[in-house]
Amino acid sequence: MSEHRTPPPVSTMLMRGLFEENPIFRLALSLCPAVAVTTSVKNGLMLGVAVLVVQVLSSMSGSLVKHIINPKIRIPVFTLLIAIWVSAIDMILAAYFAAVYQEVGLYVKLIVAFAIIISRMELFSMKHSVVPSFWDGLGMGLGFLAGMVLAGAFRELLGNGSIFGIALVPFKPLLLVVLPAGGFFTIGLIMALFNWVDVKRGHKLPAGGGGAHG
Amino acid sequence: MADAKVVSPHEILVEGALPADATAIRLVRSSDADIPLAVVSVKPAAQANSFVLTTSETLNSQDHYQLTAKGVDQPWEIAPSPLALVISVIIGSALINNFVFTRYLGLCVFFGVSRNKDTAIGMGVTFTIVGLLSGMIAWALNTFALVPLKLEFMQIIAFIGVVACLVQATDLILKKVNPMLHKKFGIYLVLITTNCIILAVPLLNATSGATMLQAFGLSLGAGLGFALALFLMSCAIEKVNMAPVPVVFRGLPIAFIIAGLFALSFLGFSGLKVA
Hints:
The complex is a heterodimer of chains A (214) and B (275).
Chain A: H1 10-18, H2 31-36, H3 41-65, H4 74-96, H5 98-109, H6 115-125, H7 130-160, E1 162-163, E2 166-167, H8 180-200
Antiparallel strand pairs in A: 1-2
Helix pairs in contact in A: 1-7, 3-4, 3-5, 3-6, 3-7, 4-5, 4-6, 6-7
Chain B: E1 4-8, E2 11-15, E3 25-29, E4 36-37, E5 39-44, E6 50-55, E7 65-69, E8 76-78, H1 82-96, H2 107-113, H3 117-146, H4 155-177, H5 179-192, H6 196-208, H7 212-240, H8 252-266
């Protein structure tokens, strides 16, 4: 049985997900969607919102049931909890946003296997009660959402010359960026940017370079 | 039943008696049986009792066709040979649509374990075996239980359940039966649950309504492709670790750039096709 710890203040929990422990650029978790669906801001936004909702709901429900499950089988139980929420979100998106769902549908289903969600349940929800779990889930979800939108904006602007489907320049500056390979380049460059900001602010980078492996 | 197969993009070789009149022959794709494909001519082939049909439309040797003729009771079913089908699905999922480099799946595990060759090989082997097993079990569950019972909305929950149980079971069995092997590969087993490829394979199979052979090919090809990607990446990372990389790019950023270069080179496979 895990005991409750005093949760950190709400602002810390929110900002941690956005910057210091940004799921995509710092923790390097849940990379598949970050590379795959960020060809446009709209796709990135949609998957980001889906992950945000699933993260918050899973963190809260994980925190609720933590006392009644045997710690030995917590991983399968958490996975099933996530799967339930993902199924619900999947059906809602398929019903209300059919056009975007066509493009990102597979990745919405795959939220089940995203390491970020189960790792927050393991690291945070197991030790804290429902309300802090909500804020932690919200912070992590927002960090993921922000990362998706940032990468989506970068790729859509460079690859299609538009933002949110609205053409800004009448040509396609760098088509490479929306190709499969471009996703990898984009994430690599943004990660390097995060590291650069860190170095400028006088922080030391972790020994193995930026971003801990998940 | 008499034999018939697609021999070239416009020709079908048919064994058995056929009327010489091309209008008496009806050729359709099994997927849309209402639209006949025009047969231009019927000629006797070099072999005895065989004919060559010429069509105006382009035929695909991977497709299924049905051939009927007036005065002949039995229809011909034209299907690709099972072996060719499996090989083409394996090559398709391992190289042309490599799960890591063109579908961007399994990246967390990919970047996590591609730091040296030994772990890359260990993960590749473990993943291929478990992936094949779970792919086949999930396919059977979907085909024989979920679809007949109209429970398709349970697919995500059912498939992740299969994966989680299989991983736990493999872990337990391996620990009892071969502790040495468990020591070596046990750590990778745990990581498999968070690998999206293992869940993507059954979902893709279910969406495309794959046959057992196709499901087998996709599961195996996904595993092989993942293992190949891991091995290539670990070789590159081992070299890069000795190179003077700019400070802000060290670690993951450079790994992403390398993966991007691999992805570019994998675009070259897109022209590959099994004849």
